[in-house]
Amino acid sequence: MIGANDFYKVMCAMVPLYFAMVVAYGSVKWWKIFSPEQCSGINRFVALFAVPVLSFHFISQNNPYQMDTKFILADTLSKILVLALLSFWAICKGQLDWLITLFSVSTLPNTLVMGIPLLNAMYGDFTQSLMVQLVVLQCIIWYTLLLFLFEYRAATILIKNQFPGNVAAAITKFEIDNDVISLDGRSPLCTESEVDGNGRIQVRIRRSTSSAAESAFSSSIGITPRASNLSNAEIFSVHTPLQEFHHIANGDIPFGYGDLGVGFRAASPQLSGGYASSDAYSLQPTPRASNFNEMDMTTVTTTGNTPMWVMSPVAGKVFRGQPSPSSKTAWESPGKTCLNGERQGYRDDVGEKEISFRDISNFPVQGGGADSENTNIIKQEMPSALVMLRLITVMVGRKLSRNPNTYSSILGLLWSLISFKWNVGMPSLVKYSVKIISDAGLGMAMFSLGLFMALQPRIIACGTKMAGIGMGIRFISGPLVMSAASIVIGLKGVRLHTAIVQAALPQGIVPFVFAREYGLHSDILSTGVIFGMLVSLPVTLLYYILLGL
Question: pTM of the predicted model, to two decimals?
Fold first, then answer.
């Protein structure tokens, strides 16, 4: 039976965390202490030092030779069950986007920041070891799988837009330049293709800005940066928060579309706030002024009746077609087809603008002459599974190699294997160096969440209906699936209660970071982080009380 003393212990563990979050929220929203740029600096410290060192601290102290096999199997089974059901649905309905989002919402809780202190207060010190084991699995297996799905989606979008129809089936090799870290669309990319005598295509993917000086683009268009001609707005890089695009200064910019990631930020301090897509717990640059060559920005309205010019990357032919509603622009390029911003031979009758392909579906391509009116949908084909696997594996590896949490988790696990195998203690100099930052890590992580909340235009960014569905999946479906998996595995007593309560924790930060970077339902994941933090405390307390009856 849960007594008043037990309830007080839980509140003592949780109130300080929420206090840090509220103070951060008020320092931006009410007291105007921190500017958006200062918030970004704080968040970068959390991403690069506080959270990775906190992860290393907990993982290095956990004994990997005393893993709770049943608890881990129950958690793994619940995730596999959800993934299998969603995969079957996605195959039948062709809904890869929703597979990724629903898997993130339902199975990946905030175990490190919220789980360890909350469950430690509820059920005792032994739960810290259980939570650390889940953190290790999340970092090494489940976040890697999630990143793999995001990169696969990004690769299919790139191929569909650069190699429409059955052209992609002839691709046998992708060569990726070393400075291409991801296909998430935040950095402008360019594809170059070569065809051998047997019709096989080799594709090179490079950053379009890396060789702008030697391209035809530089010879036909001046490259001297200058002020934007947009009234009361500055052009920033694609790290600028996407929610701001619809609220810029004196009206909507006509090409500020959803998750496309076009980098516009209002010059007004009231409108320029927000986090970079990857500043929360991942190693990416701080938002800064764009270094892309700026063009005269003419008003462009890409409605369903506006023609779009696309170059066939292999045949070198130009087709005139009607864009799908999610397609916003295209290029005509004699020899190179660029993605996300580089203009080479850009058509004057379409208009000039910088835009990023981050969430573009395949568009219909017309056959025949430029004046043809009949649109024929060409079935999209893809490269072989082995070619796609190689491409995505390379991109996932590069992405993980830039994430400090990858190194902290691996180093923490290696140290724990060594120290508990041979009973080796951590040197005092290293121990206290880690401790001084890890002690601040938990509070700084919650402080960073408060800053993030304050800089969002709305707490419920995706709308009340979608927020309600997301909260139901997070706080009801997740614990129910975890309960079923735990009972099947044979968990009982306090460990069963721990498994259920941890499944009802708020949504993790990393899935939101990925969704933001890859332009997929970031409003839903943002609501899950912010609103989920507010709802999670009463929900987890309710589960705690009901399970204790």
Answer: 0.74
